[in-house]
Amino acid sequence: MIEEVSADLREESFMKDYEIEMKRKDGKKLTFMSAATAVKDDVGQVIEYRGSMRDITEHKRLEQQLLQAQKMEQWANLQEEWPMTSTIFSPQL
Predict the structure, then answer these.
(1) What pLDDT score was predicted for residue 89?
(2) H helices within 1-93, ranges in order?
(3) What is the pLDDT of residues 17-74, one digit of tens each?
(4) Is residue 15 within 8 Å of 32, Cβ to Cβ?
(5) Are 67 and 90 in contact (CB under 8 A)?
(6) N or C: lower Cβ tally within 10 Å for the chain?
(7) Residues 48 and 6 sit within 8 Å (Cβ to Cβ)
(8) Measured between alpha carbons, how far is 18 from 42 in angstroms, rounded to an integer?
(9) Rounded Cα distance, 56 and 33, in Å
């Protein structure tokens, strides 16, 4: 992943709102939003990268909860609009 980001920065020189997922030593996944700039010398060679990262793990978790709640609400609305009947089939009948 770092090689991919470096390649993008060499070409574009700037990257904004790039999501990066990482794992802590204990296995917990973290999500970061990053921005970076490639600093180049006089001949256009990248000499360093400068950037920042912001932990958006909690934001992503809340976003997933909201999406799940919206799906459940849509399902409830469908059930109200089209009442479903269910039949239990038994191979012994």
Answers:
(1) 61
(2) 2-12, 57-81
(3) 889 899 999 999 999 999 998 898 999 888 998 999 999 999 999 999 999 999 888 8
(4) no
(5) no
(6) C
(7) no
(8) 27
(9) 6
**SS3 state at 88:** coil
Q: Select 2-76's CATH number: 3.40.50.300, 3.40.50.720, 3.30.450.20, 3.40.50.150.
A: 3.30.450.20
61: Cβ contacts below 8 Å, ≥ 6 apart: none
Neighbours of 38 (CB within 10 A): 20
Contacts of 91 (CB under 8 A, 6+ apart): none
Residue recorded with tokens 């990482």: 22
Pick from 40, 7, 4: nearest CA to 19: 4
| Residue type at 48 in one-letter notation | E
Residue from 27, 24, 25, 5 nearest 16 by CA: 5
